[in-house]
Design brief:
alpha/beta; globular; disordered C terminus
């Protein structure tokens, strides 16, 4: 693995300027990343954490710049990056790129982890992960090196978990239109539709075929894995030992309680807490799947993430409630979800 440093990207006046770097994955694919770093301080006790930000499916890493800058201003070093095929990691001919969600985890996120371990020796590694970014954590062979994880709406888009009110529309959009256009074009031309960034076909198929058990999504070409390989993927999730706080919003049609819990059950060796917030609890009309990273939530939601990364504990002064909590080893990834209880019950978004 190697990396080459480029000139700093433009940033707001008087704000810390991230440095653009290229990180080569194990297969040689160049990933574009941006790094916010403080000057080395040998006397820093405890050591300054490094936070890697994992993006949602087909969302450019620049979407997270404001949040990354805020983390940097609050004492963290930060790395954001584009998965292969997305944003500044897009090749000239996207239709020729073979990449699925699995590649984003076991190749791309793994490469970033290795880069951080090599360039930030002795610093604890934390991860903030949005949507599929929480899923790809489990796929990285080196995920045992992560100290703490904070996820936002993290799940892997099994259609039965979509909010009932929106399920049919989402089924049509993501499980009918997306794979059809991907087959016709060789990739999913999402930008023309105004939906998200253009997306590799394998990623579109990972999403549109997403099964109740994620490993069952990879039984057919062109994203097929053997039974032994699929079993190994599940075991890899067990490698994560990090403390994990999963944030979800009650009006997120992707991040419903069943969807969040479905993913969390794979992290069998992590202490896991699921924190659920309604828009009304923070005095706004909506949060949804994306707004957590908007700067208007700098004072109301972002401190929840920072407190967790710093202390591995909930900030009890923040709004919300615990939807679930369990210690490492307390559950199996394939155990059926519990029946709804009073604490988890809420109106469907």
């Amino acid at each position: 693995m190697s990396e080459t440093q480029a000139s700093p990207v433009a940033a707001q006046a008087a704000a810390p300027t991230p440095v653009a770097v290229t990180i080569a994955a194990a297969d040689g694919f160049p990933l574009r990343a941006f790094v916010w770093r403080h000057r080395p301080c040998m006397d820093a006790l405890p050591p300054r954490p490094v936070v890697i930000v994992n993006a949602a499916t087909s969302v450019r890493c620049r979407y997270y710049f404001r949040f990354a800058q805020w983390l940097h201003e609050n004492g963290c070093d930060v790395v954001v990056y584009d998965y292969r095929g997305i944003g500044e990691s897009r090749p000239p001919d996207l239709a020729q790129l073979s990449a699925s969600w699995l590649d984003w985890g076991e190749r791309d996120f793994e490469a970033v982890l290795r880069h951080v371990r090599r360039t930030c020796v002795g610093q604890p590694i934390d991860v903030v992960a949005h949507s599929i970014g929480g899923f790809v954590i489990g796929l990285a062979p080196s995920n045992a090196c992560i100290r703490r994880v904070f996820t936002v709406g993290a799940q892997y888009a099994h259609w039965r978990d979509y909010a009932p009110r929106h399920r049919l529309a989402m089924l049509w959009k993501w499980h009918a239109v997306m794979p059809l256009l991907s087959a016709l074009c060789g990739y999913f031309p999402a930008r023309r539709l105004g939906w998200m960034e253009d997306t590799p076909r394998g990623v579109a198929l990972s999403w549109s075929r997403s099964a109740a058990r994620f490993e069952d999504s990879y039984q057919r070409a062109p994203i097929a894995r053997t039974q032994q390989e699929r079993d190994a993927l599940v075991r890899r999730f067990a490698g994560l030992r990090a403390q994990l706080l999963a944030f979800s919003a009650s009006d997120d049609a992707f991040g419903t309680v069943p969807a969040i819990e479905r993913l969390l059950r794979y992290f069998v060796h992590s202490d896991v807490t699921h924190w659920r917030v309604t828009p009304q609890e923070i005095g706004v009309d909506s949060i949804g799947h994306f707004a957590f990273f908007h700067s208007r939530f700098e004072k109301r939601l972002w401190p929840l993430a920072l407190h967790w990364l710093r202390f591995g504990a909930l900030d009890t002064d923040r709004p919300g409630r615990i939807a679930s909590i369990r210690s490492a080893g307390a559950t199996s990834p394939h155990r059926a979800a519990c029946a709804p209880c009073a604490q988890c019950a809420e109106p469907n978004p």
